[in-house]
Amino acid sequence: MKRFLSALPLLLAMATTIYAIFGNAQKNSSPALQKEDRQQTLISDPFLPAAPNFELKSLNGSTVRLSDYRGKAVLLNFWATWCVPCKTEMPWLEQMQQKYGPQGLEVIGIAMDDSPGAVRKFVEDMHVNYIMLLGTQIVGRLYGGPLGLPTTFFIDRTGKITDQNTGCHYQRRNSLVGDISPAYCQPGAEQEPNSHK
Q: How many other CB atoms sit within 10 Å of the CB of residue 174?
């Protein structure tokens, strides 16, 4: 115990020095630079979690696997027809698909409803322009269920999760492009997946 107490001032001095070096460097960098550094770290991080692969049915009955989209950036959105915030953010997701789809972004919705008929009617009424799949409890659990809705995962071109958001609020509309950037900027060959819309 006496050895520990005698070493305590040295440990505190070392901790203070480390904080002074690294903490001040972080404080002195601009928020934009910090976000850019974070994105670069995510892009180059080999330890990002792999997005769990799944196999789900689309509204037209075809089978879709997440692995079909390797080589593309994927925005994976869990939602339900009864979820008001989900309906609020759908036009934002449609805009992202329209604007960034030609450059390799794929927006994929996973409906967590019990009734495929209700999902089909909802998607038709909303004129959704991105891929819509019928979710299962198993896939929900793969992605950390029970999920708060909406929940969005950002997956890079190599199949790694770079970010995750739950809920919908006005600020999120402005941050969606920033959130997808680490996934979207990931270099990789683009592949043309099968059409499942």
A: 9
What would the two tokens of residue 156 be? 């890079």
For residue range 130-159, what is the model confidence (pLDDT) as tens digits? 999 999 999 999 999 866 899 999 999 999
Fold assignment, 55-184: Glutaredoxin (3.40.30)
Give the pLDDT confidence of 42-84 residue by residue, as tens digits.
Answer: 444 567 899 999 999 999 999 999 999 999 999 999 999 999 9
Q: Which residue has the tokens 């004129």?
A: 127
The one-letter amino acid at 41: T
Residues found in the chain: 197
158-166: long-range contacts at Cβ-Cβ below 8 A with a sequence spacing of 24 or more? 158/70, 158/186, 158/188, 159/50, 159/51, 159/53, 159/66, 159/67, 159/70, 160/48, 160/49, 160/50, 160/51, 161/48, 161/49, 161/50, 161/51, 162/42, 162/43, 162/48, 162/186, 163/42
Report the distance separating Cα 170 and Cα 191, nearest Å. Answer: 33
pTM above 0.85, yes or no: no
Closest alpha carbon to 194 in 102, 85, 67: 67
3-class DSSP state of 76: strand
106, 135, 144 from 42: Cα distances, Å = 19, 28, 20
Q: Is the dihedral of CA 161, 169, 102, 65 positive or negative?
A: positive
Beta bridge partners of 134: 57, 111
What is the rounded distance in angstroms from the CA atom of residue 153 to the CA atom of residue 160?
A: 10
